[in-house]
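Is 2-(butylsulfanyl)adenosine placement plausible here? Inputs below.
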Amino acid sequence: MTTLPADEALSLSSRTEYEVTLQRLRWASRAYYGDGDSSLDDATYDQLRRAALDWEAEHPDDVAANSPTGQVGDGAAPIGDIAHTTRLLSLDNVFAPDGLVAWGASLQRRLGRAPVGGFTVEPKLDGAAIAARYRAGRLVQVITRGDGTHGEDVSHVIGTIDGLPETLPVSATIEVRGEVLFTQAQFETANEVRSAHGAQVFANPRNGAAGTLRAKDRPYRLQMTFWAYGAVELDAEAFLPVGGTHAEVLAAVADAGVQTTAATPAGLHVVASLAQAQEKVDEIAALRPSLPFGIDGVVIKVNDAAEQEAAGFGSRFPHWAIAFKLPAIERQTVLEDVVWEVGRTGVLAPTAVLTPVEIDGSTVSRATLHNPSDIRRRDLHLGDTVTVYKAGDIIPRVQAAVVHRRPEGAKEVPLPEACPNCGGEIDKQQERWRCAKGTACALPALIEYAAGREMLDIDGLGKTYVKALVESGDVADVADLFSLSLDQLTAASGSAKRAAKLAEQIEAAKSRPLSRIFCALGVLGTGRSMSRRIARHFGDFDAIRQADATAMQAVEGIGTEKAPVIVEQVAALAPVIDKLAAAGVNMTEPQESAEASAQGPLSGKVVVVTGKMTGPLEGRGRSEMNALIEKAGGRPGSSVSAKTAILVAASSASGKPSSKAVKAQELGVEVLAPEAFAELVADYLA
Ligand code: IVH
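Reply from A.M.:
I modeled the complex. Tokens:
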């Protein structure tokens, strides 16, 4: 498999490289149009194609006669024997706002003036193009795009496509053109059906749709969805509005009972100018993560029929329409491992560990896999090339395996035989497996952690009492600690005196700063330092709860991968957080501490600590040192790098400098003995 960093431009330096690139493009599109699964993901394919086009632009006399860049479907689409009524064309692409402006300028040149009839803006659906012929209101033939002039008859799909009814309520004779695709939900079902029939799963919805159109003798039927983006008259029967705008043509198609792009959640918008079109492009792009189907761009069309005609056609695409391509959000990478974590309620949650791959500007190395049957449904084997989807702030998901790229001897992803946390039995009755001990599996460890010195600091609440409280059912989450009665505490600790002391401690724990309360919840990826940063950044729990993944990324150290995971977990903890608030637990971070640290002597500095602390810092462990650094405005680091400002290095018994101290010296990082550092942060030592 080949993947390239998504926005890296490729340049070809020789005729040989150009020919090799053409060959790779041909293989990939043949595989795509053959079994539906290309050996290159879209981003890589597009990069190679662009590199070939650049080379061709620079060497116009040397362009290969059969270059796939000059052919509809890149020359690999199967050509059937059904002649199209009029050619089914492709679209030219732009990738940024200035491209759209340039297209506007070329349009103006062609028309001799700016268009006056406005533009339409609609989603570019990521499926397969078809022409569907209705005669007297009956769907009689469905044809693939093929080479644009001739397509294949795929009428066997009639009756399996939502939005493309077999009969219309009106006696229309018309050819509608549009895109067939699997919505995400249809894709999941399709792969389930295919697995049940021992067939290979589809790598992604688009490839699945292309394969399904062509597959004539499957023992099962898969439901797809259609949206029309155009229509032409058939058999010279006048049905469409004469001289109608694009929006009017689609409205007539919708009135006749066929679904059009106007019915998608992204809609069909009519705007007056390209500046307004750009705004709609941005709006549709922002909607993309929440759409129930894939789009790979937004299409802008001249709305007025006469202006369309005046702009005319090129050999591959109309001059009156343009696709604003959005970045690829699906890529192929390798599934290296699957790790299992046991959640608070005992649910076993699998996570895919991936060879890091860049998707739309961020590096993805982990993705959710919901449960064991989901893993089987996607037919995942360790070492598989998989398609991974990530849009906006959503947690990346593994779509499916690219089965034909499976390494020989690859094993199915193993499912756990015992609870990965306690080694006990697994309850497999539901889709989501859980430890048979349920909350009792992970909960005691979490409650013990929450009661620890640096979180709620409930002195005396150790392993034994926590175990008793969890086993009795009195504590099912962290918040329950704050509503324990003296009787319950007495039962757990075996003494009324101990219970009274514990109750006092619990009462005191209610006023711990938000950073400690938040840390006590055990949100994945938020240890003590991260919890402090989150609490200081947001100030109170409400603000943390309201933060979406973008807002979460404003916290130092939280990147695109971590942010949605934290947001999702905070949302799942809503009942626990509500209970904490109702019990009177503090929900704010003292502002003085945030302000004091912003002005502290270490403000903005990364400080690394090594060795056993001495002098005034004696006895302080690593996490206490980290807390001290943060209090004084700094940021604790774990290894020395060019970003490190200070290394606090205690001298070792042997007197030999540590490797960190050597590195710090090499990099010119300031090295302080614990005593000197203590002086620097003296005001924060209390
Ligand atoms: S208009 C003559 N509108 O994208 C104009 N195409 O990459 C022809 N597509 O071949 C196309 N959504 O299969 C148009 N809203 C839309 C579209 C759309 C998806 C597909 C279509 C086309 C391909 C070009």
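Short version: The radius of gyration is 31 Å.
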